[in-house]
Task: structure prediction
Amino acid sequence: MLRVHPMLMQAPNDQPLIRPATLDDVSRIRAIARAAYAKYVPRIGREPAPMAADYEDEVASQRVVVLDVEGRVSGYMVGWPEAGAYFIDNIGVDPESQGTGLGKRLIRHAATEAHRLGLPALRLYTNAAMTENFSLYTYLGFVETYRVSEKGFNRIYMRLDLTEKRS
Result:
C-alpha cells in the first residue's frame, strides 16, 4: 500500500496533483463514478459502463490516475496508450467539483502523456445520451470519428489530433 503524506498531495504550483491510483483509492474512484454517472441512468435506461467498471483491475494494470485536491481524490481517469493515440476510457469528477476545470485538467494530462509517448492524438468515446459530454469534447477540439452500438451502449468515438496548430 502506497501512502502519500498530505503535504505532498498538492503540486508545487498550487494545482491539483495528478498521480497514479493505488488500490487504496478504488473505493473513492468507485464512489465518484457512481455519483458522477448516476444522472445518466434514466437517459440510457441502465447504468453507464463506468458505474460497473472493474477499478481494481484497472488500477492493478496501472491504467488509472487520480486527481488530488487538498489531499482528497476529486477525480480520476482511466486511459492507456494504443497504436496511434492515447485512449481515454473513462473520466469521472466528483459532482461537488464538476464545473471547476478538473475534467479538462485530466484531459490535458492525457495529452501530456500522449506527447511523452510520441502519440499524435487522443481518442475517447462517450455515450450518445451524454449530450453534455459530447458538446464539451467538441468544444475542446475532438471530432467525431464514428458511432457504434457496443456492449448494449450507443457510443460516439472521438479523436483529438495533437499535431494540429490551434488558434
Notes: The two ends are 44 Å apart (CA to CA). Helices lie at 26-37, 41-44, 55-60, 102-116, 131-139. Strands lie at 17-20, 64-69, 72-82, 85-93, 121-127, 143-150, 153-161.
